[in-house]
């Protein structure tokens, strides 16, 4: 049984597949699904580029929320900034997500 479900999401087909599987699991377990998108640029980061990416991810996550609003899913979303690997682990630890 899971109590905290976290999925990283960036809008790619593989992220969409992971989201769908996590959503099915969250519904079956009657648990909230936490979705995190991480804004990051591999080059020298500029605030403008980061802000644009944050805005894009927020819009993408809002689309997920709209799509799932009638699907009996407690969907919680957030956008983090920085190295994706580090930020996903940070969010997982903060939420005490199941491994």
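^ Assign residues to that structure.
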């Amino acid at each position: 049984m899971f109590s905290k479900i976290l999925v990283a999401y960036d809008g790619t087909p593989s992220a969409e597949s992971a989201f769908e599987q996590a959503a099915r699991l969250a519904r079956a377990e009657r648990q909230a699904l936490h979705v995190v998108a991480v804004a990051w640029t591999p080059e020298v980061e500029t605030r403008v580029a980061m802000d644009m990416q944050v805005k894009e991810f927020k819009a993408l996550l809002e689309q997920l929320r709209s799509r799932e609003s009638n699907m009996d899913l407690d969907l919680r979303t957030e956008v983090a900034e920085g190295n994706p690997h580090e930020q996903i682990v940070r969010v997982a630890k903060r939420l005490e997500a199941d491994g």
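The helical segments are 13-29, 47-68, 84-95.
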